[in-house]
Structures are given as structure tokens and as C-alpha cells.
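LAB NOTEBOOK - FOLDING QUEUE
OPERATOR: T.R.
BATCH SIZE: 2
PURPOSE: Compare the predicted C-alpha cell outputs for two unrelated chains run back to back under identical settings.
PRIORITY: normal
REVIEWER: second-year student, initials M.K.

ITEM 1
FIELD SEQUENCE / FIELD STRUCTURE:
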Amino acid sequence: MALSDVLYAAYARRLLRELEPSSVPRHVGVMLDGNRRWARARGAGASEGHQAGADNIENLLSWCDEVGVDVVTLWLLSTDNLNRPEDELRPLLGIIEAAVDTLAATHRWRIHPVGALDLLPAPTAARLKAAEDRTRDVDGMLVNVAVGYGGRREIADAVRSLLQQQAAMGTSIEELAEVIDVEHIAEHLYTKGQPDPDLVIRTSGEQRLGGFLLWQSAHSEFYFCEAYWPDFRKVDFLRALRAYGERHRRFGS
């Protein structure tokens, strides 16, 4: 083993020891950004970058398991990404389908697709739903796979679902307007029943949300990492947790 590997392992162990169990976030959202730039830097094609990113997902989930995270949300494909050229989108969807199948096959985590599945090709939506069905009874961490996901679309879908539900119950618009509050809408989000993310991590150096969990992240802490997603390591993850643990959460106050 190279000296650099020995030092890396020792540093990771030290970071892990320093973590206070009480400061570990229950829900971590991750924006897996930088696959294409990682590929360009190596003279590779976009698909190679996306595959390298997919290959790193199981590592992340294992690290989350190790420290006791309950819920992880992975943003794999935005609604905007659905407008990419067909010759890039189709291979990317294939990589996502295979990655989700692989995660489900481990039988370690419960898979829950979040996003506008109606916007996806039917075979992709079916693969995601099948992965959810296969892992429904797994007693493990909940993993939201956000595919065809956009925060604005999620809020619009939640309001639409709420209106349809109330209409079916015979509630008039006027009656609903009198009582509607944030909890009514939250009950119709893709992540209904889940804790909001405590920590949101974005890789690749970009420092913006881009529409990720807009509603749920109102009180989240954010951590921006310079590494492209395929290069994101355990020490990067542990540094994010250390930074989170050092913050005094104010919850909007």
C-alpha cells in the first residue's frame, strides 16, 4: 500500500472518531454534480463521466450507513436535464437505470423514486418503480433517487394533488382557501412523511441549489465541495459532516 493511501486511511479514521453521534444529520441531500466536467478534464466522453459518477454512489451510501444517517436524497437527473440531446440523454438514462437496479440488488436500502416520473420514458419509470417495489420491505436506510426532479415542479405537483384531493372530498375553493397552510402542501410532496434534509451537499464547486428540494431545504445547512462527483471521497463526506456539526442551527431565526 502506498504511503498516501496509509495517510488517507488514517485521516479518515481520525475524522470518523471526531464525529459526535448527536451531530450526525438524519437526512442528507446530495447534488451529484460535475460528471461531465470530470470527463472533459480527462478527454473522455460524457457517458464515461456519468458512469464514473454512478460507480461512486454505493460508496456514499455505505459512508452514510456507517455514521447512522436515516435518509439520503440523491439528485441524479433534473427536469432541465430531460432537454439534453437524445444521444446524451438516452445513455444517461440507461446508466441511471442500471445504477438504481444495482442499489436495489444489494438489498441494503429502501429505494424511493422522487420526481415527475410521467415525464420520463416509460421503461425508465418502470425500472425505478420496480426497484422501489423490490426494496419496500428492506429494513435499512431510505434512499430517495431524484430522477426527472425539479423543485418548482414538485411544489406545483403537490398543490395540484392537494386540490384534486379536496375536490374529491367536496371541498370548495373558498373553503380550502380558508384553511390551507404549509402542512397541507407538505403532505403532498414527493418526500411526504420524511424529515426535511438537515444537510445538503453539492459537489463540483458550484454554490447554488438549482431547484433541489426547494421546499424541504428551507432550514437546511449547505456544504459545497470543490471535488467533481466522481472524485468525491470518504474524507470529503466526513469533512462535510464535521462542518455541519460545528454549525449552530438557527432554523430561520
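ITEM 2
FIELD SEQUENCE / FIELD STRUCTURE:
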Amino acid sequence: MGTDNLALWNKLKRTDPKATKPFTRSGFKGTQIDPTWRYQMLTEAFGPCGTGWGYDIVDTQVHDGLVFVGARLWYVDDTGQRRESGVQYGGDVLFKHRKEGPPAPNDEAFKMAVTDAVGKASLLLGLAADIYMGQFDDSKYREESEAFYAAKAAEPTEGEKGAAAALKLGFDCCETVEQLEGFWREHKANIADLPKPLKQEVINYAGDRKRFLVTPAHPAE
């Protein structure tokens, strides 16, 4: 069997429109990506920062009022192997010009340079590649991305699935209708907090269990 070399790229390439905003700089128009969203996607793909992924600062340079930072992104793949991206550089100005008075020190210069470098390194894995490939300029594509992330947000989390499974097990342990109704009252708030599909699933499960307890199945004589 062959290896799908684009599997990770395709998993990371689609950008959530809510995590973007347009910007104009020196006459250039582009799309800015929320760095926190980038970190969320890396965490979703590989696990917590520092365990499943992270980055190393490998170089820092200052030239003519600019700071440049080189960063390498690393992650742990499905086999447990640590992988690394190539080194990418990000930069920012050390002083910001003002309409009046001398330039003001940019306290965020190093931070922004690191963010820029990590963003470029994550692009090598495919993260938010649709923006750099021009797909995001297509309004129909953006609408598809909005629908994709809306559906994704509606999906139950593993924690919510686990909570629903625990509630079902609780109903299974009830041996009388009175016990079942008591368990329902005790956990009514937990059921209400579940996403709608899981909530309805648990309600239906409880109803089936109650009907069984009212009219239990008997083995054929």
C-alpha cells in the first residue's frame, strides 16, 4: 500500500473564516490569521503544546531596526516519532513611527517575530494553506469553509460522548422504574447540558429502559 503524502496537508489546509481578517500594509492587501487559532489546530492534530507539538527558536538577529527570528516547528506523528519542519524566519520592526514625535519602541517586536516564524513553519505542514494558494479569495470556497467549521463545532466532544455513555450506563443499572426516575431527577441537569443530538439519544435510551422495566421481556416458554 502506498503512503498518502498529502494526508496531513489536507487535514490542516482549510482555514476557519472566523479566524481571519483582511489587512492592508504598504498598499498590499492580504488575509491575517489568528495565531491562537493556529495553535488550536496544531493541538487538535497532535496534542498539547510541549507534548504533541512545539517549536524551537534557532536564530535571532537584529539589523537596521528590524528583528528576525528563526523557528523550527516539531510534532509527534501517529507512530510516536518526533518530526520537524524546516526553519522559517519571521520579523518585525523594533520602533514604530508616529505622526508626531520620535519613533516609539515596539515592545511586541520579538513576540510578533516569533509568531510570524511559527506561522510560516506551520504552513510547511499545510496549516491554512488554502489562504496562500488563493482558494480563500473564492467566495464559494469561503462559504464551504464556514459550513465545514459550523458542522465541526456542532460535533460532540469526546468528553460529551463519555458523559452520555455514563448516563446510559446509569440507566442500565436501574432495576425498577422508581430507581430510573430517581436517577433521571438526579442527573436532569447533566442531560440538559449535552449537545442536542446526544441529549435526545440519552432521552430515547432512558425511555426504552423504562418501557423494558414496565414490561420486561420474558424468555419463551
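REVIEWER COMMENT (ITEM 2): The CA atoms of residues 6 and 126 lie 9 Å apart.
FOLLOW-UP: none requested
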